[in-house]
């Protein structure tokens, strides 16, 4: 995220595209306004899979569950697997969708509570995913509801692009406070 902000600050479109490609799953757009939206949505998904879900499984089942979740997540997202492991990757993606279902819903709640609740709830209610893969559904929900909770506006210049990326960072840090409170309640119970 910091590399992306530095690339915007420097004004290098090549650095910006390289930094965006490291953050996003799909190929980032070369149009700046679309690219910033892709990066912001990727930040919100990564916050869930790299931090919130790991914390959740750590509190619920301990460090082995947290490590196991992260290993499953990394293997299901690995782009360098050969064709012989394609079925394993699909199976891991389905498994990840199921074990990430509850942390995703808690993250959605945290995004709405720490951001714009009305817009986030409206995005949640209007979400109709056409994909069958639960992992993809979770990611789409995180992207759409989280982005709606940011109360964003159109990006027209580099200053607004940096502001938008900082807003997504602020949302996931505020959501971390909600997560920590909920995890405290879970560990006390």
Give the termini separation.
Answer: 36 Å
Provide the gyration radius in Å.
17 Å
- pLDDT average, as an integer? 89
The portion of residues assigned to helices is over 70%
In total, how many beta strands?
A: 0
Residue fraction in strands: under 5%
Order of helices and strands: HHHHHHHHH
What overall form do the CA principal axes indicate?
globular
Q: Please, how many domains?
A: 1
Q: Which ranges are low-confidence, i.e. pLDDT below 50, for 5 or more consecutive residues?
A: none
Number of helices: 9
- Structural class, from helix and strand content? mainly alpha
Biggest sheet features:
none
Structure description:
- It is a single chain.
- This protein has 189 residues and is mostly helical.
- The chain has one domain.
- Helices cover 79% and strands 0% of the residues.
- The chain has nine helices and no strands.
- It is globular, with a radius of gyration of 17 Å.
- The model has no long low-confidence stretch (mean pLDDT 89).
Give a brief description.
By secondary structure, the chain is mostly helical. It is 79% helix and 0% strand. It has one domain.
List the helices and strands and how they pair.
Layout: H1 2-10, H2 13-23, H3 32-61, H4 63-77, H5 86-99, H6 101-114, H7 117-125, H8 134-149, H9 158-188
Helix pairs in contact: 1-2, 3-4, 3-8, 3-9, 4-5, 5-8, 6-7, 6-8, 6-9, 7-8
Name the descriptors.
mainly alpha, single chain, 189 residues
């Amino acid at each position: 995220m910091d590399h992306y902000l530095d690339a915007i600050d420097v004004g290098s479109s090549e650095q910006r595209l390289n930094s965006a490609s490291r953050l996003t799953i799909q190929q980032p757009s070369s149009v700046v306004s679309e690219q910033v939206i892709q990066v912001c949505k990727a930040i919100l998904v990564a916050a869930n899979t790299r931090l919130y879900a790991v914390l959740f499984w750590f509190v619920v089942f301990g460090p082995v569950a947290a490590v196991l979740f992260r290993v499953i997540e990394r293997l299901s997202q690995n782009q360098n697997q050969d064709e012989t492991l394609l079925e394993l990757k699909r199976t891991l993606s389905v498994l990840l969708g199921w074990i990430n279902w509850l942390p995703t819903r808690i993250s959605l709640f945290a995004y709405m509570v720490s951001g714009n609740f009305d817009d986030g709830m409206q995005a949640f209610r209007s979400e109709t995913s056409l994909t069958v893969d639960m992992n993809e559904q979770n990611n789409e929900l995180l992207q759409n509801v989280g982005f709606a909770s940011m109360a964003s506006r159109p990006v027209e210049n580099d200053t607004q692009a940096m502001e938008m990326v900082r807003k997504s960072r602020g949302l996931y840090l505020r959501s971390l406070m909600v997560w920590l409170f909920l995890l405290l309640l879970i560990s006390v119970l």
